[in-house]
Amino acid sequence: MKLSWTQVCARRLARHHLAEPAAGLSPADVVADMAGTHAQVMSAAELGVALRMAGATRQTVRDALWRDRSLVKTYGPRGTVHLLPAADLPMWLGVLQAVPWTAYKMPGDVAMTAEQTEQVVAAAGDALLDRELTIDELDAEVVARTGPWAGDLVMPAFQTFWPRWRQAVHLAAHRGVLCFGPQRGRKVTYTNPRATAMPAQEALAAIVPLYLRAYGPATPGQFAHWLNAPKSWAGEVFGRLDLEEVEVEGRRAYVAKGDTEAPAEPPRGVRLLPYFDTYAYVVGNQPKELLHPGRAAERVLGRNYQTLVVDGVVAGLWHQRRSGRRLDVTVEALVPLGRRQLAGWRSRWCGSARSCRPARRA
Fold first, then answer.
1. Which of 13, 129, 260, 340 could form a disulfide with 18 if both were Cys (CB 3.0 to 4.6 A apart)?
2. How far apart, in whole angstroms, are the C-alpha atoms of residue 131 and residue 139?
3. Are the C-beta atoms of 135 and 184 separated by less than 8 Å?
4. Are 169 and 117 in contact (CB under 8 A)?
5. Among the three residues 225, 256, 287, which one is the final residue of a domain in this structure?
6. What is the spatial distance between Cα 81 and Cα 321, in angstroms, rounded to a whole number?
7. Does residue 283 share a domain with residue 338?
8. CA–CA separation, 57 vs 50, rounded Å?
9. What CA–CA distance (Å, rounded) separates 350 from 106?
């Protein structure tokens, strides 16, 4: 089976609900279709999910996260903060526990022993049962349950030092005993999602088709890049599954068995993706030289910008500046935008704005 790059772009835009906003789907459905949403900046995550849904706002996503609890905010792929569907959390925990992490080793006077690590993970989980604690409150609870050594300020972080135990926060999240809770004013809170990991092989057999549906066709190396895992390990994972090989512009890649369909029409339209959406649409999508053609390779590739996507590929970036009730949006296009594209941009993104016009052509 051969797929052109144009067909691949059309598939990905449709699968990410960027061709048309999804009707009748919940925020959890959309996040599942994206194989998780980067949420280092919550406002960007809310916007990224909402723009993929018909009639949704950022409040729609907040309600799913903090009221309905159909979404979970936790440490996901690559160890970064993500929104994940609550129903899929056992699968994700099984995957994250199975990935052979190459973690940074703390110096001897900072590191914890294996026994100490298990103590603080258990202590954090116990402290967070049916509670929502700030990080300072959790510090006190963990130290009280383990010992003064857990609270030693020895872990370098942001020009200060954190308590020793915090080096196990990601591990506690991947064990299913820690996730984010709702904000308390300006303070982040944590709670215990009470989740149990799916067996590793079962979880990996589920995540690969999910990844390939959102980002495929893809190679084991691209899957490894998405998860921050060793390429050799990813190759072994792919080798155990019944996948289908396809060819994209002369390159071999894989899709889930039977998932070779592509939209009949080529990808069209201009999309403005928010901060960190580059991780959802761009990091998972490869190859980089096709996704970032021409000047986009030097201007956008490898940087966390708000991204301009034209007909399925990265074609620039955009900026915003708020002054009172006025919001100025500047689009820096790295390719010429035709009349059709400008008209589509106005109708899709300007909405009921009082004025919406290009200041100049890049």
1. 13
2. 14
3. no
4. no
5. 256
6. 26
7. yes
8. 5
9. 49
Count other Cβ atoms within 10 Å, centred on residue 167: 20
Structure tokens at 214: 């959102």
User: Is residue 278 within 8 Å of residue 247, measured between CB atoms?
Assistant: no
Residue type at 298?
E
Structure tokens that stand for 27 in this block: 């925020």
- Tell me the CA end-to-end span of the chain in Å, nearest whole number: 39
Q: Which of 197, 225, 241 marks a domain boundary?
A: 197
Together in a domain, 122 and 159 = yes
**Domain with 251 in it: what CATH number?**
1.10.10
* Each residue's pLDDT tens digit, 55-82: 999 999 999 999 999 999 999 988 899 9
- pLDDT tens per residue, range 115-153: 999 999 999 999 999 999 999 999 999 999 999 999 999
Same domain for 308 and 320, yes or no, is yes
Tell me which DSSP letter residue 78 carries: G
Range of the domain at 181: 113-197
153 in the same domain as 208: no
Whether this model's pTM surpasses 0.70: yes
Q: How many domains does the chain have?
A: 3
Residue 89 lies in a domain: no
Q: Indicate whether 176 and 120 sit together in one domain.
A: yes
Residues 123, 158 share a domain:
yes
Contact 12, 246 (CB under 8 A): no
353 C-beta neighbours (distance < 10 Å), count: 11
Non-local CB neighbours of 111 within 8 Å, separated by 6+ positions: 105, 167
8 A C-beta contact, residue 286 and residue 314: no
